[in-house]
Amino acid sequence: MGEIEEHLARDEALWRTWSEEGVTENTPLTVDFSFYATSQAAAEALAAALREAGVPKAEVRTTRTLWVFKGWAVSAVEHGTWSLARLQDRTWAFCRLAAACRCRLEGCGAMMPDQNSAEPSASPNGGPATRLGNSGVTEGPPSVS
After folding, report:
1. What's the CA gap between 18 and 131, in Å, rounded?
2. Rounded CA gap, 94 and 45, in Å?
3. Which domains are assigned to the chain?
């Protein structure tokens, strides 16, 4: 299975999870897409291409993997109502755009809305809101067995 097909399969699982949490095609949702680049120039090119493609919030920051390797993370945020078809359409387009900029799509995720309000669901202990549906994004170094 190729990279795009893997992302599309993850989107299906992600949509099922969102649906189980009460998300429908009419639910406003903010979806975060995460990308990785090995050069700052590639990351900046991707962020510019995403803005040009209509994504107003595309940001670049440095990141480290393992102890010494430095890379660049690009995040893109889109607001609106979502369907599996729209999610997969954006995934397909973002995979192609990332590849053209010599970057890669890491995955996407969203904060689930609270069933009783428009605010993200808060943790019962007052911690951060619950983030459901990470389709493959990882932070930090891989675990060592």
Report:
1. 11
2. 13
3. 3-132 (3.30.70.970)
